[in-house]
Amino acid sequence: MQEWITNKELSYLPTMLKAELYQIIKEHKEAPIYEADQLLISHSHKVVRLPPYHCDLNVIEFMWSLLKRRVASNNVGQEVGNIVKLTEEAFSSITPQDWQKQCEHVKHLEDKFYERDGCMDNITDKFIIELGNDSSTDSDTSDDAYASDSDMSGIVSFDHNYCEEK
């Protein structure tokens, strides 16, 4: 890690931990260039990356699910030699309408996520935590002062119906 940073003519402290060195590397490492992206861009297509860990926003995952369901529903005898044939039949049975339906489903999910995120932004903007009270001082170390500092009475409970009302 130190060698990479040095080769890029960046600076670091010898006492830095790996996590700190990694942060420097992340900040200065160029994004990879993928051949497939370049091919798509050369044909006037825009490449949009899915957010990590959100397979529910990837249409192909729904199509794989559809394919597996079609194979499973026809795999009555569960013969291993039949799987290739059933899979090929399932692939050929997928229609443009199937793709359209799954794309619309993902758009619906995106809209729901967007709505929830906006709602959460509104809620978190109004979420204020007030701990302790003004009567305790920093020099007071009694058990009573500690108890008042850790008092959670200033926290307002989350209203789960807030989003549904908006």
What does this structure look like?
With 166 residues, the protein is mainly α. Among the domains are: 52-123, no CATH class; 127-166, no CATH class. The chain contains eight helices and no strands. It has helices spanning 2-7, 18-28, 35-42, 59-74, 83-93, 96-126, 143-149, 162-165. It is extended and about 65 Å long. Residues 136-142 have low confidence and may be disordered.
Brief digest:
This protein is mostly helical and 166 residues long. Helices cover 57% and strands 0% of the residues.
Top keywords for this entry?
8 helices; RNaseH_sf; Tc1-like transposase DDE domain-containing protein; nucleic acid binding
Rg over alpha carbons: 28 Å
Measured distance between first and last alpha carbons: 50 Å
**What's the count of strands?**
0
Q: Approximately how much beta-strand content do the residues carry?
A: under 5%
The ordered string of helix (H) and strand (E) elements is HHHHHHHH
Poorly predicted parts: 136-142
Please work out how many helical segments DSSP would assign.
Answer: 8
Average pLDDT confidence is 81
How is the main sheet built?
none
The structure class reads mainly alpha
Global outline? extended
* Helix-residue proportion: 55-70%
